[in-house]
Amino acid sequence: MNFINKKFKNLHNIALDFFDKYTSAEPFSHIVIDDFFEENLLQDVLDEFPSDLDKKGLSSDSDPQKLKFNLIDYSKFGKKTKLLLDFTNSYIFLNFINKITGIKEPLISDPYFQGGGLHELKNTGYLNVHSDFNKHQITGLDRRVNVLIYLNHNWKSEYGGSLELWDSKMSKCVRKINPIFNRIVIFDTTDFSFHGNPEPIKHPNNVSRKSIALYYYSNGRPKKEIIGYRDTPNFKNRPNTNDKSEKITIYKKLFWKLFYKTKVNLQ
């Protein structure tokens, strides 16, 4: 089965073609590639995207993130979604991510989809700017790379929900990326890769913003990439805004650790 768009010869060539652009990108290493996957497959994934994700999955409704839902339970994914996720967790795709990013340590996929899987933002929902957790709560591995796959046809920038990439000082947004269908974004995960979609969704037809989030890990990492180990996100306030950053309490940390451990025991 073809997973990658036929206009690309193979993943090895894609990695070679985009390596320099990836590693030199600002404000941190990243790449945006359009029409990456085979279109019919991705359309099938969108067609089986749960209409009741807000009931099946996890919800986040606090100051730094509103009306955000995600599904991490593999057993609840559709048939074509499982095929796609199996491919993106395979050696072939892992090797591609290693080559395009230049990360020396062998990358490892996450079968638990901690924080990843299917994502949805309802109208008026948003996710404030943050750097991601850098330590997996179950495996203890180091989080190195984010891969985002967007599933939104005819999405206009005025609908909100663009992915914003901010500089390390949180002084300015360097790039905004519209979450259009079959667009993939890959970027390094460090304590300085500040990103988010802080502008609320305002689709005129009340259509939600849908995506797939995949995270890749290694056993060990360069010390310069992190300030300290964290298994929760670090939210930041944009200048001249009313953004609120969430203080992760010890009780909230305990809740998420118990949640993921429970999921492992049940599967």
Query: Which descriptor suits the 3D outline?
Result: globular
Radius of gyration: 17 Å
- Quaternary structure of the protein: single chain
Q: Beta-strand level of the residues, as a percent range?
A: 25-35%
Can you tell me the number of structural domains?
Answer: 1
H/E element sequence = HEHHEEHHEEEEEEEEH
Mean residue pLDDT: 90
Number of helices: 6
List low-confidence stretches.
248-252, 262-267
Spell out the CATH superfamily. Answer: q2cbj1_9rhob like domain
- CATH class placement: Mainly Beta
**What's the total count of β strands?**
11
Brief descriptors of the model:
24% helix, Jelly Rolls, disordered C terminus, globular, alpha+beta, 267 residues, eleven-stranded antiparallel sheet
Tell me the layout of helices and strands.
Layout: H1 11-24, E1 30-34, H2 39-47, H3 53-56, E2 58-62, E3 65-71, H4 79-88, H5 91-101, E4 117-131, E5 142-150, E6 163-166, E7 173-177, E8 183-188, E9 194-197, E10 209-218, E11 234-235, H6 250-266
Antiparallel strand pairs: 1-8, 2-3, 3-4, 4-9, 4-10, 4-11, 5-8, 5-10, 6-7, 6-9
Structure write-up:
The protein has 267 residues and is of the alpha+beta class. The protein has one domain: q2cbj1_9rhob like domain (Jelly Rolls, Sandwich), CATH 2.60.120.620. Helices cover 24% and strands 27% of the residues. It is built from 6 helices and 11 strands. Strands 1, 2, 3, 4, 5, 6, 7, 8, 9, 10 and 11 form an 11-stranded antiparallel sheet that branches. α1 (11-24) runs parallel beside α5 (91-101). The longest helix has 17 residues, at 250-266. The protein is globular.
